[in-house]
Description:
alpha/beta; Nucleotidyltransferase, domain 5; about 40% helix; five-stranded mixed sheet; 10 strands
Amino acid sequence: xxxxxxxxxxxxxxxxxxxxxxxxxxxxxxxxxxxxxxxxxxxxxxxxxxxxxxxxxxxxxxxxxxxxxxxxxxxxxxxxxxxxxxxxxxxxxxxxxxxxxxxxxxxxxxxxxxxxxxxxxxxxxxxxxxxxxxxxxxxxxxxxxxxxxxxxxxxxxxxxxxxxxxxxxxxxxxxxxxxxxxxxxxxxxxxxxxxxxxxxxxxxxxxxxxxxxxxxxxxxxxxxxxxxxxxxxxxxxxxxxxxxxxxxxxxxxxxxxxxxxxxxxxxxxxxxxxxxxxxxxxxxxxxxxxxxxxxxxxxxxxxxxxxxxxxxxxxxxxxxxxxxxxxxxxxxxxxxxxxxxxxxxxxxxxxxxxxxxxxx
Length: 360
């Protein structure tokens, strides 16, 4: 990737339920990576409540940014660009981070870069020198997104297939809620599944055939609900070994669906590099099976460190750095877009040359 033309870069991510800020130097090295999670705020409700998320971001964004600058040992005046996620996500949450970034960019007289959240996940690998360079097939799997892309760099992501209903992370969370396991469900199911038999409760794999590269997880969620109702009606408690086995069965089904589609696409497109991102990429079975099945299919698989799988600002800063390297930035009139399409990400940046203070 071309070297950045400006640095240091501060980025803010606030699309859902993490308030994050990160700082990269002009060479892409991570100087600071701060994430404030809202798990405790949303746990009583079994999922993310948009209004609570927005208020939490508003309450935390200033302190998270201050901590990132302190960790990077920089003052605001030393920044040479500010970036933020502009979409997709919860509109109130997006507005907090984007408006904070706009205010800083205007006050400091430095460029603003609006970053598409999915491009951020696809660029998370850029923070690791060992990661493959584009082009590659990208699988983004999280609580809000499950999709496959051909990724050739910022502004050049082509959608190949996506979920038609629930996202993979959403399927984990809804299963956990049905079982009374708490929130966030993916991590709990992953932990309990380690003790279970994944073959005890057969789960459906929707859209398995070769006619589509889309995903579907609503049938899996329904199958779990029907099984839970049947077991409870029969007076059988889903606890102990039965609970572990159900968690293992659900986890195995989701992982199989994700990897079967992703590896099939990589081979069909003759692009034998697969980068997996998003919160579900932190799942332990997905990580081990991706490496094993990738080797079996002659596909190079890359998984970012777990910290860079969940929402973070390092990935947003990495994408912003790539835009700046092209001499592009965003106007201060950029609007938050809850439904932003990754194919339209180039529309968030201007082709005008980047201007701002000369940086180290």
